[in-house]
């Protein structure tokens, strides 16, 4: 059984990299062993701190992509050009290396399996990461809450967790996945590339009268546009929860 996240004072813990996965050419999945991990809720994030030999340190926040359970925490990191932390995590860190990690952080942008309301997930780029934790938790809990994911990505090569999402959507009738490509659609796609708009959200998200919980994550401009559309479509603003980066 997954442990519940324990609120309280956050402390830095030593996390050891156990395994990695290449998610795209510019994104990497990182699984850490974190002894004493208190547990987390899907949608929460952690702070990661790197410290150089001269004492200089830098920290960044990353969403958790794994379902709760045990002392393992999975992150998905998108490499940022000229970044201080993401290139190290994506290109340098190897199994057995250690970093400092603090969390879990956040209590608003979380999904709880006990909530029976249908769920609309809307992701822009690497904004899929905390939503993936929700999808995985739903499966791990055996939840029958219906999920609809609308995922905006530049090209097919930029879709994180592409194989897993296809498999889960194929095997689980309660999970619908719609990917919108903004720059290049796959060959034979029924729709040309374009930005996610009103028609797509109205068609592939749950209608407002179903009173779904809506979780929107991505770059600031994307999140603001999507949340405005959802409210304009009649969704209760209190049920539209957002997480933004950049």
UniProtKB/TrEMBL annotation:
Gene3D superfamilies named among the record's database cross-references: Nucleotide-binding domain of ferredoxin-NADP reductase (FNR) module, Translation factors
Signal peptide: none
SUPFAM superfamilies the UniProt entry points to: Ferredoxin reductase-like, C-terminal NADP-linked domain (SSF52343), Riboflavin synthase domain-like (SSF63380)
FAD-binding FR-type domain ranges (all copies): 10-111
A Pfam family matched in the record: FAD_binding_6
Lineage summary: Bacteria, Bacillati, Actinomycetota, Actinomycetes, Pseudonocardiales
Protein name: Ferredoxin-NADP reductase
Record CDD domains: FNR_iron_sulfur_binding_3
Species assigned in the record: Lentzea xinjiangensis
Highest rank taxon of the organism: Bacteria
Alphabetical keyword list: 2Fe-2S, Iron, Iron-sulfur, Metal-binding
One Gene Ontology MF term: oxidoreductase activity
Cofactors, names only: FAD
């Amino acid at each position: 059984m997954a442990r519940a996240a324990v609120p309280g004072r956050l402390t830095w813990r030593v996390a050891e990299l156990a395994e990695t996965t290449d998610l795209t050419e510019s994104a990497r999945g990182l699984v850490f062993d974190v002894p004493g991990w208190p547990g987390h809720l899907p949608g929460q994030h952690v702070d990661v701190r790197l410290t150089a030999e001269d004492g200089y340190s830098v920290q960044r926040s990353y969403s958790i992509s794994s379902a709760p359970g045990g002392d393992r925490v999975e992150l998905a990191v998108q490499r940022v050009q000229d970044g201080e932390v993401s290139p190290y995590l994506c290109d340098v860190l190897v199994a057995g290396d250690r970093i400092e990690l603090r969390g879990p952080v956040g209590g608003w942008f979380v999904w709880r399996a006990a909530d029976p309301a249908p769920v609309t997930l809307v992701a822009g780029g690497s904004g899929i990461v905390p939503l993936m934790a929700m999808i995985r938790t739903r499966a791990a809990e055996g939840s029958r809450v219906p999920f609809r994911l609308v995922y905006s990505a530049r090209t097919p090569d930029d879709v994180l967790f592409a194989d897993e999402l296809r498999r889960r959507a194929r095997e689980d009738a309660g999970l619908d996945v719609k990917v919108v490509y903004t720059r290049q659609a796959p060959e034979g796609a029924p729709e040309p590339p374009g930005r996610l708009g009103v028609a797509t959200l109205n068609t592939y998200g749950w209608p407002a009268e179903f009173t779904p919980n809506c979780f929107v994550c991505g770059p600031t401009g994307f999140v603001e546009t999507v949340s405005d559309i959802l409210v304009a479509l009649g969704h209760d603003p209190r049920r539209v929860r957002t997480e933004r980066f950049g």
